[in-house]
Amino acid sequence: MHDILQAALKESKRTLSSTDIREVDCLATSFINTTWRLKLNDGGQLFAKTAPAKDFQKLKFEANGLKLLHRFSNPNFIEIPTPVVLKQLNNHSILILPWLDVGVGDQANLGKGLALLHQASTVENPGKFGWDLEGFIGAGPQPAGWDNKWGKCFIHLRLIPQLRIAAKWGINISDWEKLLEYLIVFLEKHKPTPTIVHGDLWSGNAAIQKNGRGVIYDPATWWADREVDLAMTRLFGGFSNDFYRGYESIWPLPPSSKFRTDIYNLYHLLNHANIFGGSYKAQSLSNLKNIDALILSS
Question: What is the largest CA-CA distance in the chain?
Answer without folding.
Answer: 64
